[in-house]
Design goal:
The protein has 7 helices and 6 strands, in the order E-E-H-H-H-E-H-E-H-E-H-E-H. By secondary structure, it is of the alpha/beta class. It has 2 domains: about 1-45 and about 100-205, Ribosomal Protein L4, Chain: A (3-Layer(aba) Sandwich), CATH 3.40.1370; about 50-90, no CATH class. Helix 2 (about 30-45) packs across helix 3 and helix 4 (about 135-145) packs across helix 5. It is elongated, with a radius of gyration of 27 Å. This is Large ribosomal subunit protein uL4.
Amino acid sequence: MKVAVVDINGKNTGREVELSADVFAIEPNNHAVYLDVKQYLANQRQGTHKSKERAEISGSTRKIKKQKGTGTARAGSIKSGIFKGGGRMFGPRPRNYSFKLNKGVKRLARKSALTMKANDSAIVVMEDFNFDSPKTKNFTNVLKALGVENKKSLFVLGATNNNVYLSSRNLKGSDVIMNSELSTYKILNANKLVLLESSLEGIESNLSK
C-alpha cells in the first residue's frame, strides 16, 4: 500500500512510500495480539505485593476462650484471620508475573497491530526532521500541524535523536521511540502512529524475518 509523505508542517511533500504488504497488510491475529499485550503488561508489574499472614502477626498464643459451652465456634488464637488484627488468609505474596512468548508470535502480533492501524488510516509517514535544540514548543507545533495535539501519538524514529526525544518528554500524550523499541501495546495504545521515513526500513526488516 502507498502512503503520502508529509513534512514537519503537515503538508504533503508530493512523494509516496510503499509500505510492505507482509508487515502492514496481513490477516490480523487477535490472539497473538492479546498474548503480546498481556506479556507487556505483565512485565510492567513489580510483583512486590505482600501482606502479613498468621505466622507473621504479633500477638498472644494463648487460647482465647474455652473449647466448649460458648455457643460459638471454637477458637484457639487471636492471630487467626477471622479476627480483627489477625493475619490475612491467602494474601498476596511476592512473585514474578513474566512469562515466555515465542519470537514468531511477537512478530505476528506487531504486524497484526500495524495492519490494524493501517486499516484504520491511523498511520502517518513523515520525512525526517530535527530541532536545533530541545524545546517542547517545537514538538507541540509538530503535533498541531499533524492535528494530534489532543490525541495519543507515537513517533517512531529510525536513528537516535536526542533533541526530538527531549522535546517530547514533557508531553503526556506523546511518545517517541526507536524502531527497535516498537511493541504491540504501544502501537495499539496510540491514536496516531507517526513513522519517520528512516524508520520504515528497520521496521520492515525486523518484522519480515
